[in-house]
Amino acid sequence: VDGLVKHFPIRGGVLQRQVATVRAVDGVSFRIGRGETLALVGESGCGKSTVGKTIMRFHQPTAGTVRFDGRDLAAMKPRELRAVRRDIQFVFQDPFASLPARMPVGDILAEPLEIHGVGDRRSRRARVVELLELVGLGADAVNRYPHEFSGGQRQRVGIARALALEPRLLILDEPVSALDVSIQAQVVNLLARLQRQLGVAYLFIAHDLAVVQHLAHRVAVMYLGHIVEYGDADTVFTRPAHPYTQALLSAVPVPDPRLRDLDRRILLTGDLPSPADPPAGCPFHTRCWKAEERCRAERPALEVRTPGGADSACHFAAEAELTSGPAGRTAS
Ligand code: SF4
Ligand code: MG
């Protein structure tokens, strides 16, 4: 994904003229390797779902390119695009809303196979049972309806459906956010096992770092349409360079003793600014406890700022250490 931009027009008045632009995604770049998990993390409204949906072509990008296997999706002929649609599948946040209520699970799982003309009726049935077993559901689920399942089981069905065509990339849009905390770990563990077993890559979209800490190989932290930190999961979790990442991470119970010793929670004050009217300079400056004059005027580029560190979009990331939480805003 290279320089991806997605702006939405806001129209108003009797003539429905464009009165503003929501800059949902404002120049986002990253790559995901085979069989690898990139976690895309940020609070709600930061544009992370829009990134996933634009890769899926649910939205047309305003600018930028998305390549799969080196090939530009926008330049593909319909036939090539259909093949890529098999390779990239989407798992929705809400397993209650995303499964058709009136279809038995067997039909829900067979549907993508039918649409893509895979196998005959009998082999599709066999594949459906295989998929159910893959996600830890029994073959008897075939004749049951979504409402007969718990939230966690429904999300397993959603994952099975997404895996039906043996995709190479799953875009998971907050796949456990709608589930009870006790169930979340089970689904995350399932996803980890499926990745080991199938070698499928994940773009795992989440609003907090805790959910992805055992799954992510790399992490991209998003704020107001921009990636503000991007690097190996180990680096981001142990040496977060951007103040926003530090704030997100301070909410995560981490086993790392260096972080535990800090024993502090960085509480962000103020609201997320509107993506229709983003602040000048660093997009985080209205909530950043380290902001200086320069931050209001000049947007920091996303680049490596400490030896061996993650890419960070903060003018002062080189000076940022874990010990530099916001004075007066910490609680132990
Ligand atoms: Fe904070 Fe300035 Fe860094 Fe932005 S550039 S994160 S406002 S210190
Ligand atoms: Mg979302």
UniProtKB/TrEMBL annotation:
Span of domain ABC transporter: 1-249
Q: Does the keyword Hydrolase apply?
A: no
Which Gene Ontology terms describe the biological processes this protein takes part in? Answer: peptide transport; transmembrane transport
The UniProt entry, under CDD domains, shows: ABC_NikE_OppD_transporters
Q: Keyword set for this entry?
A: ATP-binding, Nucleotide-binding, Transport
Q: Which domain of life is it from?
A: Bacteria
Q: Which Pfam families match?
A: ABC_tran, oligo_HPY
SMART domains documented for this protein: AAA
Q: Name one GO molecular function term.
A: ATP binding
Q: Which residues form a coiled coil?
A: none
For this chain, the family text in UniProt reads: Belongs to the ABC transporter superfamily.
Protein name (record):
Peptide ABC transporter ATP-binding protein
The species this protein belongs to is: Jiangella anatolica
